[in-house]
Task: inverse folding
């Protein structure tokens, strides 16, 4: 595999009995790329992501993530990626500092490393005044920004973001994407699912799943040219309608 390709997927398939949730999908993702993974509810994108992060075994096909095989090395994959979602990010009954320390420990960082990274994160996000507050008392936008930063604590090669900006206001969403661009510019690959089609415009490339298959994959600009539309929402609607 090309050393610049940190995710390699070929004919990856997941079936549940007679139902095929993910049907022979193939794609690569490069180092430092912001890769949008789109699809309506039930399209198969969540099932595909679960295979890539090492928590669901594929039925067939092949895939490597951060250089590790999804069949043979799922535990190594988990150690080399970051993950956050809208549904689960941080523990509400712990303070900001306690959350950072807790996840730093899970990632296997030393106490000294946790302390250094905690101080840097708090300074970078300007969290000094709220670092000892319970996360549950913070606005959702702050929770998501802190959660993303925590997912980067152990310097993962790839961060998987599952609907990371759901429910937050447009200004906070834009600020969150600035964090994504910063991480990407430093070489971290970002694999993101979103149902906000304007966010698809921010990605380097976008894949769109329909009924378990990838029906389109290219840059937002080229996809809009291919489908002769002005925005990604119209690309999505055309594919959804068949």
Result:
């Amino acid at each position: 595999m090309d050393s610049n390709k940190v995710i390699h997927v070929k004919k990856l398939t997941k079936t549940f009995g007679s139902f095929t949730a993910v049907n022979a999908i193939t794609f690569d993702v490069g180092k430092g790329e912001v890769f949008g993974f789109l699809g309506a509810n039930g399209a198969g994108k969540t099932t595909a992501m679960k295979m890539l992060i090492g928590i669901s075994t594929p039925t067939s096909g092949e895939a490597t993530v951060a250089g590790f095989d999804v069949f043979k090395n799922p535990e190594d994959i988990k150690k080399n990626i970051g993950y956050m979602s809208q549904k689960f990010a941080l523990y509400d009954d712990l303070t900001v500092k306690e959350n950072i320390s807790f996840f730093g420990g899970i990632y296997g960082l030393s106490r000294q490393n946790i302390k250094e990274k905690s101080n840097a994160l708090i300074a970078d996000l300007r969290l000094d005044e709220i670092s000892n507050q319970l996360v549950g008392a913070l606005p959702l936008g702050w929770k998501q920004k802190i959660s993303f930063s925590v997912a980067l604590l152990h310097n993962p090669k790839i961060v998987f973001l599952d609907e990371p900006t759901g429910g937050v206001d447009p200004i906070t969403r834009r600020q969150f994407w600035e964090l994504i661009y910063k991480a990407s510019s430093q070489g971290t690959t970002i694999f993101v699912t979103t149902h906000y089609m304007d966010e698809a415009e921010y990605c380097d490339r976008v894949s769109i799943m329909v009924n378990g298959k990838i029906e389109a994959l290219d840059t937002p600009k080229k996809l809009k040219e291919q489908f002769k539309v002005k925005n990604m929402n119209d690309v999505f609607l055309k594919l959804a309608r068949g």
